[in-house]
Design goal:
The structure is a single chain. By secondary structure, the chain is mostly helical. It has a domain of about 170 residues: MetI-like fold (Orthogonal Bundle). The chain is about 75% helix and about 0% strand. Helix 5 crosses helix 16. The longest helix has 29 residues. The N and C termini lie close together (about 10 Å).
Length: about 325
């Protein structure tokens, strides 16, 4: 197990290097001059040239790349051109709502999606099964922004059950107040994930329920609860774990649509703002941070696979 984990960690090094390179190149080819975004349209040519020199934009692209690579390796992720604060500090300042939104929405998805998939598999070809699969298909196909806007209109404006937008920090309203302000966005963000988990769980449960060891369990007189939840679900868990793990990583990276619709000051909305301002260092820091998070999540998922099935090798 230790050897397996070390191999997976080492394999992440070239992937991280590729991500750094792609992030640097993609940010540089986006149209727009950071000097104009930084100073506005009223500055003089001399002021524009001065800020470009200060930001190192006049250097050849290869020089900028190796300077950026050196800074990353030495722990210097850069300073935001917008507020002159370290980029990592800016990310951490937007971290609280994104973390709570991720945990809240993932909990809703797991609590609703997995049991629905199990029930649908156990009642295959019944009215309940057709109802669950139909709702799952609708949940997967409905755009997140549309669901968010409908929830804002119905639950926020008409019924006034929840705040329409914004976020209440834990320091201001406590954990209960923070979760209350995130209820609509969390449910909106979890709908697609609920549908995915339901379909994955149903499909994998149907695959394993016809295996010999399931029939043997029934023949030995084991209860349905033991057969389905202890034996069948464990062997069907790998794809479900993948969906949950990657969804958590993606949500921690920040859901741009959800945070924008509900005006939540999280990492996703911050990434969009940084891109609009052409804040190179900040945007590349967010991309790199998110990529590292996804790489570590994949490694963790591989370890979980190994624990679920020791036959898996690197």
């Amino acid at each position: 197990m230790i050897k397996f984990t070390i191999k997976r960690l080492l394999s992440a090094i070239p992937v991280t290097f590729i991500v750094i390179t792609l992030a640097f190149l993609l940010i540089r080819i986006i149209p727009g001059d950071p000097a104009i975004m930084y100073l506005g349209d009223e500055a003089t040519d001399e002021e524009y040239e001065e800020i470009r020199e200060k930001l190192g934009l006049n250097d050849p692209l290869i020089v900028q790349y190796f300077r950026y690579l050196k800074n990353i390796l030495t722990g210097n992720w850069g300073t935001s051109h917008y507020n002159q604060k370290p980029v990592f500090q800016n990310i951490l300042s937007r971290w609280e709502p994104t973390i709570l939104l991720t945990l809240y929405s993932t909990t809703l998805a797991v609590v609703i999606g997995i049991p629905a998939g199990i029930i649908s598999a156990r009642r295959r070809n019944s009215v309940l099964d057709y109802s669950v699969t139909t709702v799952s298909a609708l949940g997967s196909s409905a755009p997140t922004f549309w669901i968010g806007l409908m929830m804002v209109y119905l639950l926020g404006v008409k019924l006034q059950w929840f705040p329409v937008q914004g976020y209440t920090y834990v320091a201001d309203g406590g954990l209960a107040g923070a979760l209350y302000s995130l209820t609509m966005p969390a449910f909106c963000q979890s709908i697609s994930h609920q549908a995915t988990l339901c379909r994955y769980t149903r499909t994998m449960m149907l695959d394993v329920m016809h295996q010999d060891y399931i029939r043997t369990g029934h023949a030995k007189g084991l209860s349905d609860k033991v057969v389905y939840y202890k034996h069948a679900l464990k062997n069907a868990a790998a794809p479900v774990c993948t969906s949950v793990g990657l969804a958590i990583a993606g949500k921690l990276a920040g859901s741009v649509v959800t945070e924008t619709v509900f005006n939540i000051p999280g990492v996703g909305k911050f990434a969009l703002e940084s891109l609009q301002r052409r804040d190179y260092d900040q945007e590349m820091a967010i991309i790199l941070f998110v990529s590292i998070l996804l790489i570590l999540t994949n490694i963790l998922l591989d370890i979980v696979y190994k624990l679920l099935d020791p036959r898996i090798s690197f």
